[in-house]
Amino acid sequence: MLSAMSVVANFCTIPLPGNNAVSFTLAVCFFTGIYFGALPAAIVGFTGDLIAHLIHPMGDYNWFMALSITLYGVICAFVYKAKAHRLVKLTLAACLCYLICLCGLNTFGLWLQYIVGVKPSPIGLYDFFAGNHGAIKKSFWLYLAGRAPMSAVNLVVNATITALLQESKTVAKLIAKIKRKESSSSSAVGNEHAPR
């Protein structure tokens, strides 16, 4: 269900000038990482991105953006293991996602694709390091400087949505119900395998 929500969120992306966008997929990944852990979050992020690309491809599949979207929820899941207030943890997770995913992987993948002109994939990365790049009109750092402010807006929007979901009593009740159902299913399976 969360993977389906990730696909829908991908289609609700609001494009902005300069290869920027507000993508609500981040909030889905954050939510999954916070409440269900790193592996489910990685699956939701990756499958949501891949399925959205297969349904409506917009150029070459960007491996760096795929890795980035996979890591959003994973980072949240690990940060939320710390003992701190949830808004402090969300702020720390958002800052790490901003640096590693949005400014790092996302921007690098888009820079390779649109500025360098190679495929945003491992093969394109090899071509980048093996080729002569004297003709590149804009350095990665200059490209990052142009993208960083809008990436921050994207992150703040998604972190705000996540914070509101965390504060929602309805969401808290739903998560508690899911967790109870999971634990009762686990104990039922354990009882089936118990010695008689």
> How large a portion of the residues is in β-strands, by DSSP E?
under 5%
Write the element-wise H/E pattern from the N-terminal end onward. HEEHHHHHHH
In the predicted model, the low-confidence regions spanning at least 5 consecutive residues are none
How many domains make up the coordinates? 1
CATH architecture: Orthogonal Bundle
Helix content: over 70%
What is the tally of helical segments?
8
Q: Tell me the CATH topology.
A: Arp2/3 complex 21 kDa subunit ARPC3
CATH class: Mainly Alpha
Q: Report the count of strand segments.
A: 2
Descriptive overview:
- This protein is mainly α.
- It has a single domain, classed as Arp2/3 complex 21 kDa subunit ARPC3.
- The protein is 76% helix and 3% strand.
- A two-stranded antiparallel ribbon has the order 1-2.
- Strand 1 and strand 2 (20-22) form a beta hairpin.
- The model has no long low-confidence stretch (mean pLDDT 85).
